[in-house]
Design goal:
The protein is of the alpha+beta class. The chain has 13 helices and 11 strands. It folds into 4 domains: 64 residues, no CATH class; 106 residues, 2-Layer Sandwich (Beta-Lactamase); 66 residues, Orthogonal Bundle (Helix Hairpins), CATH 1.10.287; 150 residues, Heat Shock Protein 90, CATH 3.30.565.10. Helices cover 54% and strands 16% of the residues.
C-alpha cells in the first residue's frame, strides 16, 4: 500500500473521529444529565411514602416544617416534591408551578398516577390517603431524560457544539491540506520556471528527500528537467556550430564565384548569377539561424526603456526605399507615445521584419498601414504595433503554424524564403513578455499585431 494513501486515509480517519468525539462530548457537556425517570410503581411507592411522612410532619409541627421536609427530600433525591391539600390553606395548589397544576387536577379526579411532560422536565402526580383519612396530592418533578439525538437538537448550547465541531475538524483538515498542497506548490513553481525557459529549474531537496510519492515525483521531475536542459543545450550548440561551419565554405564559394565570373565566357554569366543568388539566400539563412540560436539563449544584455515610436518611425523610413521599387506606399496611420522595457536592437529587428514582409507580399499600387497604440488591459498597460497589408493573406488553416521554423505557406507567391523571419519575430516578442498575433483582414490582406507590455517606469500618455 502506498505511503501517501495511508497518510491521507489516517488523516481523514482522525478528522472524522475527532468530529464524532467532539459532537458526543459537546452534547454530553451541554445537556442536563439526571437519571431517567423512575418506573411507575416506584413513583407510586415514593409518592405514598413522601405524602405519609409529610402529613405526619404537618401534624406535629405545622406547614412550615412540611416545606423544610420537602426541601430535604428534593435535595437528596435530585427531584422536586410538592404537597397539595384542599383542607390546609398553606398546602394549596398555588405552591405548584403552573405547568404542573393540570396533573394535580387530574390526580384529584382519578386515583391513578398522572404524568405531565414539559420540554425539560417530567412530573408525576399521585393522590395519597393518610392513616387518619385525609387526602393529599403528591407531585414529584424530575429533569426530563433525553436521548442523544434529542439533546443534540436542543438549541441551548448549539453554538458551543458547532464551535467544538468546527475547531476539531478544521485543525487536522488544515494540516492535511498543507501536507498535500505544499509539495504541489513547489512542483508548480518549478514547472512555471521551466516553462519560462529556466531549464536549470529544480524542485530541490525539500521535495526530493521526502520518502513518499511526492518525493518520487520530485526526483522524476528533476531528472526530466536535467535531460531537457541537456537536450536544449545540445540543440543550441549544434545550431551554432552548424551555422558557423557553413559560413566558411560560403565565404570561399563567393570568392570562387567572383573569380569564375572574370574567366568564363559571357554565355555562362546567367548560371553564375543564379549561383550567386542562391549563395546569398543560403548566407541569409545561416544568419537567421545564428540569430535564432542567440535568441534561444537567455540574454545577459540589461534591459532598457525603449521608445517604440522612434523604432516604428525609423523602420518605416528605411522600408520606404524598398517599397518604392515595387510601387507600394507605407503610411503611419497613428503613432502614440509608447515605451517598453527591453533591448532596442532586437525590437527594431522584429518590427523591421514584419514591415518588410508586408511590403514584400503587397501588390503594386497598394498601401501598408502601420499603427502604434497605447492600450489598458486587465494585466496592465500595453503597447501594440499593428501592420496591415493588402496582399493575399494567409489561409486560416496555416495561421496557427506561422512562426514555426522552416514552415512556409504552400500557395504560389508565398513560398519564398525559409520561414525563419516570423519565427525570429515571435521569439523576440515572447522574450520581451509580449504576444504575436496574425489575422486576415475582412476584405483582403494580413494584419500582424505585436503586443508588448508598456513600461511602468515612465507612464505613456494617451
Amino acid at each position: 500500500m502506498n505511503r501517501l494513501f495511508v497518510r491521507i486515509f489516517l488523516w481523514f480517519w482522525l478528522a472524522m473521529t475527532l468530529v464524532g468525539a467532539a459532537l458526543v462530548a459537546s452534547v454530553i457537556g451541554t445537556a442536563p444529565g439526571p437519571p431517567p425517570p423512575p418506573h411507575d410503581r416506584l413513583v407510586e411507592l415514593t409518592a405514598n411514602a413522601v405524602g405519609t411522612a409529610a402529613w405526619e410532619v404537618f401534624s406535629r409541627n405545622g406547614a412550615a416544617s412540611v416545606h423544610e421536609f420537602l426541601k430535604r427530600v428534593s435535595s437528596s433525591q435530585e427531584i422536586r416534591c410538592f404537597i397539595v391539600s384542599r383542607e390546609v390553606p398553606d398546602l394549596s395548589i398555588s405552591l405548584v408551578p403552573e405547568p404542573l397544576r393540570r396533573a394535580v387536577d387530574d390526580a384529584w379526579r382519578d386515583d391513578k398516577l398522572c404524568e405531565v411532560a414539559t420540554r425539560s422536565t417530567l412530573a408525576y402526580a399521585k393522590q395519597v390517603r393518610t392513616t387518619n383519612g385525609h387526602s393529599l396530592v403528591v407531585v414529584c418533578e424530575a429533569t426530563r431524560f433525553r436521548t442523544f439525538f434529542e439533546a443534540a437538537q436542543d438549541p441551548i448550547g448549539l453554538p458551543a457544539r458547532i464551535t467544538a465541531v468546527v475547531l476539531c475538524a478544521g485543525i487536522p483538515c488544515f494540516w492535511l491540506t498543507r501536507f498535500i498542497t505544499s509539495p504541489l506548490r513547489q512542483l508548480g513553481g518549478a514547472v512555471a520556471r521551466l516553462e519560462h525557459g529556466e531549464f536549470d529549474a529544480r524542485v530541490g531537496p525539500a521535495l526530493t528527500q521526502r520518502r513518499d510519492e511526492f518525493g518520487s515525483l520530485g526526483v522524476a521531475f528533476d531528472r526530466m528537467a536535467a535531460k531537457i536542459q541537456n537536450l536544449v543545450a545540445a540543440h543550441r550548440q549544434l545550431l551554432q556550430d552548424v551555422s558557423h561551419e557553413l559560413r566558411s565554405p560560403l565565404s570561399r564559394l563567393n570568392v570562387a564565384l567572383e573569380l569564375a565570373r572574370s574567366r568564363v565566357p559571357d554565355e555562362l554569366s546567367t548560371s553564375l548569377d543564379r549561383i550567386g543568388r542562391e549563395s546569398e539566400n543560403l548566407n541569409k539563412l545561416v544568419a537567421q539561424l545564428l540569430t535564432l540560436a542567440r535568441l534561444n539563449v537567455q540574454s545577459e544584455t540589461p534591459a532598457e526603456i525603449v521608445d517604440l515610436a522612434t523604432i516604428v518611425s525609423a523602420v518605416v523610413e528605411d522600408a520606404r526605399f524598398e517599397a518604392t521599387t515595387r510601387d507600394v506606399t507605407i503610411r503611419i496611420d497613428r503613432s502614440e507615445p509608447c515605451e517598453t522595457l527591453g533591448q532596442i536592437n532586437l525590437l527594431y529587428m522584429a518590427v523591421e521584419n514584419v514591415v518588410r514582409n508586408a511590403v514584400r507580399y503587397s501588390p503594386e499600387h497598394t498601401c501598408v498601414e502601420v499603427s502604434l497604440l497605447h492600450a489598458d488591459s486587465e494585466g496592465g498597460p500595453r503597447s501594440r504595433i499593428l501592420v496591415r497589408d493588402h496582399g493575399p493573406g494567409i489561409p486560416e488553416s496555416e495561421l496557427a503554424r506561422i512562426g514555426t521554423p522552416f514552415h512556409t505557406i504552400p500557395q504560389a507567391g508565398l513560398a519564398s524564403g525559409a520561414g525563419m523571419g516570423l519565427t525570429i519575430v515571435r521569439r523576440v516578442v515572447e522574450q520581451h513578455g509580449g504576444k504575436l498575433r496574425l489575422a486576415n483582414a475582412r476584405d483582403q490582406g494580413l494584419q500582424v499585431e505585436i503586443d508588448l507590455p508598456a513600461s511602468t517606469l515612465f507612464p505613456s500618455a494617451n
